[in-house]
Hints:
- This protein is an alpha/beta fold.
- The chain folds into 2 domains: 2-90, Nucleotidyltransferase, domain 5; 108-184.
- It is built from 6 helices and 5 strands; from the N terminus they run βββαβαβαααα.
- Strands 3-2-1-4-5 form a 5-stranded mixed β-sheet.
- β1 (2-9) and β2 form a beta hairpin.
- The longest helix is centred in the middle third of the chain and has 29 residues, at 109-137.
Amino acid sequence: MTIVSDGWSDPQRRLFINFMVATENGPIFLKAVNFSSDIKDKDFIAQHIKDAIMEVGSSNVVQIVIDNAIICKAISMIIDNEFLAIYWTSCIVHTLNLALKNICVAKDVEKRNVTYKQCCWITQITNDANLIKIFIMGHSMRLSMYNNFNSLKLFSTVPTRFASTIVMLKRFRSLKEGLEKMVISHE
């Protein structure tokens, strides 16, 4: 299994670190630790990762996935020293986010504009999906019709740095057939 961990803050701005376990059967939430009042150094976070590893059994863990911030690289060395068979893998979503940030914040304005023109289709698709979601969820009659054609629910994602847009678009892809049936139905 893989232990995946990331930090986040709740609406009250309290800091948490969450731990998920990913297996071939899918992800499972393990725990979230409130560390608002603690010193968040590499040793503190590494200890919580070690606790998570021990909770599921170190012989069951193949890798840990955390972002690639400098502190996380230091944490990976601590884990590598104690658990020789467990590998650290940097989070690909975090890596892609950093790469996109570098592209979008290019110092050369002309180069940035060219890049945006090549990637603006992503924003257009996201905006279209949001409009459809708002159109359906904003009116009870349309939502009722939607529910007749789809077993999956529409949901609003909280905007985050990483995955909320991908999650929403993936859900829309799963709903495509039901949405098409809803639009062409006699109702």
